[in-house]
């Protein structure tokens, strides 16, 4: 029997993490939930994000007994992990900005954290910087617009480069910025476009591969739950019906998902 793994994000950004996990563990049973009714999480109050994430994960777990959850969202992971671990007795893997490897690889010791407006403010992230990048000068850039640009790219393939470039304006003149942490799961999906505006940057680091290895390791010690009449199709859930879902159905089907359905959560 294959473990059932839920990926959770506010939108389609979590697919950047899902792709890495699926590449390493192709045969697991995958569920993906996007909280499109709450999108974007970037500037939402922490309590709202905690409440929504917990309710959604619990609801899915009641119907599809889960073996592991990946919170494929930095904005949520920096606040929800304690509460999820308190309420759900399964491994919960969070996605947090890859500050540690970035500080290690940077030669100039001048690095950038590109994340949502919420993530760059979090105590969790400041502690990561204190613990692992104390020898670096760390620039922080929080953007909701970039999240929306990435989400749109997944839906219809369009990227507004003018808007993207102006979001990155403040880093353009920083010549020794050699490493950028893509601290939002949406950003690996627009990495090529981001690169065009930051030619001085040698390394763009995200957490996807590290998460895939972490999931692989944790699964070694998981007692996979018995599932009766298990539907082994990979499924997508979202929290609000809108015309956008029809637009990105194709992207999801190409990634191996079969059926999409709405869940009423709140
Ligand atoms: N993909 C999410 C992250 O990693 C956030 C997107 C949003 O702001 O909703 O932070």
UniProtKB/TrEMBL annotation:
PANTHER family: GLUTAMATE RACEMASE (PTHR21198). Transmembrane segments: none annotated. Gene3D superfamilies: 3.40.50.1860. Provides the (R)-glutamate required for cell wall biosynthesis. Its EC number is 5.1.1.3. GO terms for biological process: cell wall organization; peptidoglycan biosynthetic process; regulation of cell shape. Pathway: Cell wall biogenesis; peptidoglycan biosynthesis. The keyword Isomerase applies. The keyword Cell wall biogenesis/degradation applies. One of its GO terms (molecular function) is glutamate racemase activity. Substrate binds at residues 9-10, 41-42, 74-75, 185-186. Belongs to the aspartate/glutamate racemases family. Keywords: Cell shape, Cell wall biogenesis/degradation, Isomerase, Peptidoglycan synthesis. It catalyses: L-glutamate = D-glutamate. This is Glutamate racemase.
